Amino acid sequence: MSGLLQHADLDVTYRFLDVFTGRLTAANALGIYHLYPEAHDEQAVNTIRPLFDAIVERDDGDGCVVKEW
Length: 69
Fold this sequence. Notes:
alpha+beta
């Protein structure tokens, strides 16, 4: 998603992701998205965050932390 956010307007990116995630849900499919949060301002991250069910964050070690909304 970082590429989308870097090359497209936030509103356009939000609308695209809203439709895309809706279609994945309708197909009972799983979508996995990658975002570098430090590469984007807080507003952009907070705007698209509600479109997703959970977030997986890497910690400083070898593990991952799953955060559900």
